[in-house]
Amino acid sequence: MEKFKRNERLAVMAQVLTSAPNRIFTLSHFCEMFGAAKSTVSEDTAILAETMKKFGLGTLETVTGAAGGMRYRPMLQQGAGRRFVEEVCEMLRAPGRMLPGGYLYFSDILSDPQLVASMGRLFAADFYDSGADFVLTMETKGIPVAMMTAEALHLPLVIARHSSKVYEGSAVNINYVSGGGRIETMSLSRRAVREGSTALIVDDFMRDGGTARGMLSLLSEFNVHCCGACFVFATEKSSVSLPVPTHALMLLDEIRIDEPLQVRPADWII
Fold this sequence. Notes:
The chain is an alpha/beta fold. The protein contains seven helices and twelve strands.
């Protein structure tokens, strides 16, 4: 079998590990790939871990046990998360984002792959060891950032819908009170969730917590535990208190059409 140089092995290992965050790869996986001894791959792993730590590219951890190996966990450098959120806040303060009726336009931000990937990594950082089995979001705006969070955690994404779909089979439907005080319906396919598992909720915006409480109620119908809830935005003066650890990247003050938007990074990021 062809012999590979160390720089070649390191380049391939970095690509494989970073393209599948939080997934465990055994030493044997790379030994077979390169035709190298375990001691050689272990040395390569140590070099790669030190380099990632030095440049703030994330962490490369060794997992012990019968099913052990190594896994890459993307992390933003200390202070980089705060700077990133402040940059997004500055984008939101740009003129022209306020729409008639007091709505804020931010679909472009939640459609930018690089921005939502960084958001997903920030959310994932606190829930790597939470035991979550899947990420749950509500259609539709929260899907991109929920998908990036699920990718960083190496978990499947489950989407609650406003109505059940024929192509998803039988579903559980509940009624909940939305942010506008309206009674709405939330649906989740029975095939999408395993009873007794653990979920992480990720969504775009929390005003009074109506949708979040609806998702918690929906999970309880499946006897699913929720380990936390993450939101891109939350209102500054919100009195909402969810019964799970809650993170929001940015806090919005009351939206006034004729005044600049008041938005800032959440305290836990600062």
